[in-house]
């Protein structure tokens, strides 16, 4: 899996953007590019005025930091008009692009903060209102991802921060199409997922007409985007469910490393890589694929998977490692080597037993054990306090991306349902399947080809 630990990971050595390209925000770095930032003589404490971009205000932020550092003052005002602002760190300046072949938030490096939220169209709202909403959402996403204010009534929550690798991704659920009279445009890939015997799904926290995934490397930037998206919904749609997640912060590890989940396992090692010959075919609907409006899009399966951590943490380390088939310390297969060494499925120990058990999670999820089925996993961990019984309400917001769920998530989950050693330590509590169209071209909004096609 790609580097998940450093801000640099957002720009280099990670799944590429398939034409999207990622680069630092323009004009965010210093007062030199922000000639008219407020000064000590004119402190700007007000919320950003309409039309003044947050990028412009970033110069103020830098200058503020410099003043505090230099004089240890309590005011936080820039020391002198001539002083240069301190540049944003690369973490704040990192920027994902809104326009591109694919939407952002699919192949980008994991961010440290995430929100996933589903909306239902309001009674009486149809295609016209949905089109207007997607237009509003796209305008907001484009601005916020560039580090600018929301188009209307900006809350100032992200003020002083750069784009921080913010991504905002939009999808359509099965029910969207009947609500908008677009049944003929509904892809068969959106047919409801089959029921699995281990499912313990809460319908009120599953599915939804519309789905938005927000990720950023700053919690305030992510929350700011969430509020803007929710406010944009206005009277057209209301929140059905919302879940909040996190990953390790960029720079927390001494070198770039694969993420860990709340069970402590290295999680993400064997994700498909963009350099794999079949990466695009596995993850994205082809440019000439069906339906036409889903060209370059992808399907997101979202599962809220509770981890039964009290039970898991009672397991001794060797038993934990046999559940997955990999070492907890390094993520290396139990058959030997390092994290990236190919797993030897045939290797037996002195006792003659397979070192990677037949029901080990990392054995039975492999594409070669599932007729080639593969998906790009891009999860967030979650922790929502404790349940009534005192156990942690914590686990994985498992989000996986594929060109077709019937050749990705479904066969693998069927296999897991039949006998995964991990299954007694987890519980699937909510589920969603969403069609995520390709990226919007300049001047277009996400989903325009569906809503105006
Ligand atoms: C249906 C798909 C999958 C679900 C649901 C799932 C849940 C889940 N997984 C872990 C932890 C790990 N998974 C690992 C590998 C792995 N898991 C899946 C699929 C699902 N996991 C796949 C396709 C793979 C890769 C298989 C391969 O090609 O080798 C690993 C090993 C490291 C890695 O490759 O990422 C861990 C660890 C948890 C905790 C979990 C539910 C909470
Ligand atoms: Fe897994």
Automatic annotation (TrEMBL):
Its EC number is 1.11.1.-. One of its GO terms (molecular function) is lyase activity. Residues 258-440 form the Dyp-type peroxidase C-terminal domain. InterPro entries: Dimeric_a/b-barrel, Dyp_perox_C, Dyp_perox_N, Dyp_peroxidase, EfeB/EfeN, TAT_signal. Pfam families: Dyp_perox_C, Dyp_perox_N. The keyword Heme applies. Coiled coil: none annotated. It is found in: Cell envelope. This is Deferrochelatase. It comes from Streptomyces macrolidinus. The gene is efeB.
